[in-house]
Fold this sequence. Notes:
It is built from no helices and 10 strands. By secondary structure, it is mainly beta. 0% of the residues lie in helices and 47% in strands. The protein binds FE2/S2 (inorganic) cluster.
Amino acid sequence: MAVGSIVDFQDGDFRPLRIQGLSVLVGMVRNRYFAISNACPHAGSLLERGSLNGEELTCPRHGAVINVLDGRCVVPEGLPQVPCYQIEVDSGRLYVTV
Ligand code: FES
């Protein structure tokens, strides 16, 4: 599904998008685009309200830290991985597959 253009995202930008009924966080960091679930694996808070430092997104509720490029929970260890979705660039357009 087309979700926008590469010019819509500068380094560190991210925003929630509704894709086929799922809330997906789409963004770009260090010239890599990402699409991950918008729900924190700890207690389900919206990650769209978090803060991004490099590729690590801190959940605003209890401070879990998630790597947006692979969905891995860095802090605390042991939380489930955040679902990641395929994102591709074609002719300047971004496409996400959920
Ligand atoms: S809901 Fe995200 S850290 Fe608790």
